[in-house]
Amino acid sequence: MQVVLAGGGTAGHIEPALNLADALRRRDPGVGITALGTEKGLEGRLVPARGYTLRMIPPVPLPRRPSAELLTLPGRVRDALARTEAILREVDADVVVGFGGYVALPAYLAARRTRTPLVIHEANARAGLANRLGARFTPHVAEAVAGSIRGATRIGIPLRRAIATLDRPAMRAEARAALGLAAEGPVLLVFGGSQGAQRINAAVAAALPELLGLGLQVLHAVGHANIDAVTERPPGYHPVAYLDRMDLAYAAADLVVSRSGALTCAELAAVGLPAIYVPFPIGNGEQRLNALPVVNAGGGLLIADEDLDAGTLVADVRALVQDPQRLARMSRAAAAHGVRDADDRLADMVQQAVAQAGGTGGGAVSAGQG
Predict the structure, then answer these.
(1) Can you give the pTM of this predicted structure?
(2) How far apart are CA 219 and CA 217, in angstroms?
(3) pLDDT tens-digit readout, 41-55
(4) N or C: which end of the chain has fewer CB within 10 A?
């Protein structure tokens, strides 16, 4: 089976695509994987690092609102479509799997023109324009948040195997030792994406004396651009530029403060980590919508970006860490909402799409869990 993945631009599009690729390779080491990307996206680094083939096409960002860019859109789509069709024919693609982003629209149009089976996965609570359009071309549509895209089946977001199979209690001691944390006492994990989050960083810095006064250790990923500015490092505060091993960070933590990107919400729910979500306030509000299902299920709290300050942060953290039973209930609620096997569920859908089109799907279709 030859699979073409279309999910470029941000880690939120690329990571689920690569996690699906890993799931397909576990089933059949001989499956062919080709990822589409652009020169602008993170895929130039992330895809080769995971051992998969990357083919570049011209980017086709879709304007969120009417603008001069719309005038150039037909020409850009035409160029990207021609390049994508050529790639599908070169690799003899059996299926295209799209995750949104700059490469999605030409991939969906090329799949339609070449009559290649198409599978679409939507990670966000509010579907993007490319996925909404592509979903009209196929019955094979999956989503992470119920109601995000018409006709979709909720399966969650494909996660890295290290996250999906994480046993937090069993890994706790090893994780804390690896991260330089004390073995005992509650740990607050703070992060805001690969670049950090200025609003969260500022609130934590202002609240740090009170947070440490609660007996917390604070593991704080501040972002590469901000680490040199962190000059105060009192005992119990562990600032880092970036966390390469999120599985260890999750295993070490008792509570999280973070943004609420779709992948972050999916990971925290899957591993059963209570979180205080601070949605990034730009875009179309999708980060707030991403967090709402797990918050409504009882697995987290929500603080609007404009309401986040030291006082608000300390009050919410204190209320949780001083009530272990409440924290445990939140952990169970998050885990009950989370999905750990979305990679296999999406792999099932891919194989079914190929089989229904007359291919083999790379072997027998697995039942999937849940």
Answers:
(1) 0.90
(2) 7
(3) 788 889 999 999 999
(4) C
